[in-house]
Specification:
Blueprint (H helix, E strand, L loop, with lengths): L6 H21 L6 E4 L3 E4 H17 L4 E4 L13 E9 L1 H6 L5 E8 L2 E9 L4 E6 L4 E5 L2 E5 L12 E4 L5 H10 L4 E4 L2 H9 L5 E4 L3 E2 H13 L3 E3 L14 E2 L3 E4 L4 H8 L9
Parallel strand pairs: 3-4, 10-11, 10-12
Antiparallel strand pairs: 1-2, 4-5, 5-6, 6-7, 7-8, 8-9, 12-16, 13-15, 14-16
C-alpha cells in the first residue's frame, strides 16, 4: 500500500498523463503538419494540445504551485515557488512524427529544486512508469503493476547501453569504446530510455545533446526511486526549477554501481561531446 504522502498529486498526474495520451493518439499517424520552433526542434498540434490539457489540469488542481511546460511561455513566478510542476507533454516528438511509438508524456513535481514525483506514460504501448520519493518506482503494463529495480551489473564493460535514436552522437561510440561496451541500443524518448535502466532492461544511458528540464525531471524521479543515479557528464546531480532550464553538459543515467567510474572514464572525452 502506498503512503499517503503526495498521493493526491500522483493521482492527478496519472490521470492527466492518460488523458494527454488519448489526445496524442488522436493525432497519431494522421499526417499532421510539423512546425519548427527555436533550435529547429519539431513541434506539432499534438504537442500543443497535450501541453494545454496538462497545464490546465495542474493549475486547477494545484493553483498555488509553479508550472514549467515545454510548449507554453515560461512564467518566471515559478522561481519563487517551493513546489513546481515540470512537464514535457510529448517527449520524443521526432519519434511521434516518424511513427515509431517511442514517445511519452512526462509529468514531474519538484520540491526545492529536487524531483520528488515522476510519471512517464507511453500511450502507443500502454506502458506507464511512476514514482514518488521514498515510495519506490513502478511499471504498469498489460494489467500488471511491478516494482522496478535497477540491475546488479557492476562491470561497465558488461553493461547494456542505450542511447538516442534521433539524436545519436559520435561521442556515444567513443564512450562505449572507452568503457569496453560492444554496441549501443538506440530508441526514442529520454523517459523511455531511463525507464529501461530503471526496470533493469538496460544498465546505462548516455547522452551529449542539449536537454531541457522537462526532458529530464520525471525520468530522474523514476530512476532515483529504482535505485539508480542520474547526473550530467561531469558527475553533478541535476537541480530543477532554474531560470535557465537548459542542461548543456550531457547525461549519464546508470544503475549506480559504477557511476563514478563511468564518469571518470569519460572525463577525457568530454571536449568531444556536442553541447
Amino acid at each position: 500500500m502506498r503512503s499517503e504522502a503526495l498521493q493526491h498529486e500522483l493521482d492527478v498526474a496519472l490521470g492527466l498523463a492518460h488523458e494527454a495520451g488519448m489526445v496524442i493518439m488522436g493525432y497519431y499517424q494522421t499526417g499532421l503538419a510539423v512546425d519548427l520552433k527555436a533550435g529547429d526542434e519539431p513541434v506539432t498540434a499534438a504537442d500543443r494540445a497535450a501541453d494545454s490539457l496538462i497545464a490546465e489540469g495542474l493549475r486547477t488542481a494545484f493553483p498555488d504551485d509553479g508550472l514549467l511546460t515545454e510548449e507554453a511561455e515560461d512564467d518566471l513566478s515559478r522561481l519563487d515557488k517551493e513546489r513546481v510542476w515540470i512537464v514535457d507533454p510529448l517527449d520524443g516528438t521526432t519519434e511521434f512524427i516518424n511513427e515509431t511509438g517511442e514517445f511519452a508524456v512526462q509529468i514531474a513535481l519538484t520540491l526545492g529544486g529536487r524531483a520528488v514525483l515522476g510519471v512517464v506514460y507511453q500511450p502507443a504501448k500502454g506502458r506507464l512508469f511512476h514514482a514518488v520519493q521514498g515510495q519506490g518506482a513502478y511499471q504498469v503494463f498489460e494489467g500488471e503493476t511491478t516494482r522496478m529495480r535497477v540491475s546488479s551489473q557492476p562491470d561497465p564493460a558488461q553493461m547494456c547501453l542505450v542511447a538516442s535514436r534521433s539524436h545519436y552522437s559520435p561521442f556515444v561510440d567513443l564512450a562505449r569504446q572507452a568503457l569496453g561496451i560492444p554496441k549501443a541500443n538506440r530508441i526514442g524518448s529520454v523517459g523511455l530510455k531511463v525507464g529501461l535502466v530503471a526496470r533493469a532492461a538496460c544498465d546505462l544511458y548516455l547522452a551529449t545533446t542539449i536537454s531541457k528540464e522537462w526532458d529530464l525531471c520525471a525520468p530522474h524521479a523514476l530512476l532515483m526511486e529504482a535505485g539508480g543515479v542520474l547526473t550530467n557528464l561531469c558527475g553533478e546531480v541535476l537541480v530543477y526549477n532554474k531560470r535557465d532550464v537548459t542542461e548543456c553538459t550531457g547525461l549519464v543515467a546508470s544503475n549506480g554501481l559504477a557511476h563514478d567510474q563511468i564518469v571518470e572514464t569519460l572525463a577525457p572525452l568530454r571536449d568531444k561531446a556536442e553541447w
